[in-house]
Amino acid sequence: MNPIARISACLTLLLVTAFAKHVSAADLPNILWITSEDNGPELGCYGDDYAITPHIDGLAEKSSRYLHFWSNAPVCAPARTTIITGVYPPATGAEHMRSNVPLSPKLKMYPQILREAGYYCTNNSKEDYNQIKPGQVWDESSRKAHWKNRKDGQPFFAIFNHTISHESQIRNKIDPKNTIHDPAKARVRAYHPDTPEVRKDWAQYYDRLTMMDDLVGENLKELEDAGLAEDTIIFYYGDHGSGMPRSKRWPYNSGLHVPLIVHIPEKFSHLRPKEYSAGGTSDRLTAFIDLAPTLLSLIGQKPPEWMQGHAFAGRFDAGPQPFIYGFRGRMDERYDLLRSVTDGRYVYLRQYMPHKIYGQYIQYMFQTPTTRVWKEMFDAGQLNEAQSKFWQRKPPEELYDLHSDPDEVNNLAKSPEHQAVLKKLRKAQRDLAVKTRDVGFLPEDDLHSLAEGSTPYDVGHDPSKYDLETVLTTAEDASSLSADKTESLVRRLSDRNRAVRYWAALGLLMRGEAGLKAGHAQLVVALKDESPSVRVIAAQVLAQFGSDADNAKGLDVLLKHASVESNTIYVAMLALNALDELDGRAASAIDQIKALPTKSETRYPRMDAYIPNLKTKTLDDLQAAK
Ligand SMILES: [Ca+2]
Ligand SMILES: [Ca+2]
Q1: pTM for this model (two decimals)
Q2: Radius of gyration over alpha carbons of the chain, in Å?
Q3: Nearest ligand to residue 36 Cα
Q4: Residue 359 C-alpha to ligand 2 middle, in angstroms?
Q5: How many domains, the chain?
Q6: Which range of residues forms the domain containing residue 43?
Q7: At 449, is the secondary structure helix, strand, or coil?
Q8: What separation in Å is there between the alpha carbon of 35 and the centre of ligand 1?
Q9: How far away, in angstroms, is 623 Cα from ligand 1 center?
Q10: How confident is the model at residue 21 (pLDDT cuts 50, 70, 90)?
């Protein structure tokens, strides 16, 4: 070999070695995520004097604490689904609590990408994803999953999720030795009544947070004892707001704002975001949608184009963003649809189903004493305006100023001096729906029938199958409640797009007697629509607001669609919700409702309780009224 060739070969070898060293396992950070269930920033380090959380506070002292971090969804499964895919569940059809939707082959779950990069990935242990896993996602996902089981020298990504703070733990029996918070000193939120039951639930919630904090302390100690503290990036966060009613399940700040503490040790200081300082805060707007891209950025990988969030640390830090977003679809057995957005100070909500009350009866939610006493006091006329709102119908738009109104009870949507910020946030919310191809505007049954042989995400991204702009505009016109739109909604009952017809029928339902009067003839025709969702909504309008003859026609259609044996579960849930909303106007059908099946041959994993719950509540109301 001549000298030049020899030098060149040496250089190549050096470069290869240097590159290999650059990506070697030893240089990749371990990443530990400690997460806790159903808790907002009710922690000492977030300035909550009532909270006793020394371990998390200690972690915050050497980390960066995020002031505006949203979980995107206010409830477990859709929130966790956002994280695992890095795609908004409204774009993948996985927004409904709960569901079981196939993942587009164009997408991956982020641990698959980490594992390809050499990481040992463990989840201990809750998954609760609304998307079906595409093959192996974790090296281990179980109560035994632990970074300790990795191969020598292998970098790890490990999650430990603490369920001790979950909604169910607020209302169960607690060991007296753990009841350390005095209910008399709890802060009762402006939307709740101030009663002993409500104070007790808030106090037990804080007791559970202290117990959760001890477990976080154990996770941190374990890491230190293994000598890994300087090699490991740590995230601590809550999975959505507190399990108290109107936090969990509601995409207000009270349901979406969660703590996020990020510790990046000195060894990886090059991965810290600009504003990082130990013991300091970050006022960047960040959310669950950003977690997967941030993880990839921290291990030096460019996040794929299909991920819909922004890395907020690491090599591909995308910089500060102007907004963060929230959403709510079906909650257990109850349909609803709304979207929210904040710029950090103002929170905007767009209600697409304003005819439904906020506090629709969800069997699981009503197990909490606060929910029950709150509803009883409303029924007895004992609540003030802010406390009553949860049991009433919704306005199409809401706007809250977190500076002057942290409990979000003073709606500024009609305030003249807030119209500029309202318009800004309204546009941001709409822009996101268009940009991410939100398929939440399709009835759940249509979503799945359209996606047969494909996936909801792929349907949503195919303009020939989903005319988002037209459907969204109809949903906006319907839910605006504006009388000016009634006539055009009647016309759209015969549109060729079935989702447009669905929103047209819903728009008439939202307008009650006026809707029926304007579209009576077209609603009768719609009882034979090719779309079962359109048939059900048209039947509800007739049965709820029509003459006795209309009522009989409507009930007949609803009862046929409420059978889960002869319809999909989505159609059956829609029809049962309609029957429940009819109350006394369904009284003549009580025996037929009793005879409705609760099981079908088709399996719907994760949804077993919903049909029985709907049937029970519908019949309980009818019996009580007798
Ligand atoms: Ca949760
Ligand atoms: Ca009812």
Answers
A1: 0.96
A2: 26
A3: 1
A4: 13
A5: 2
A6: 16-322
A7: helix
A8: 10
A9: 34
A10: very low
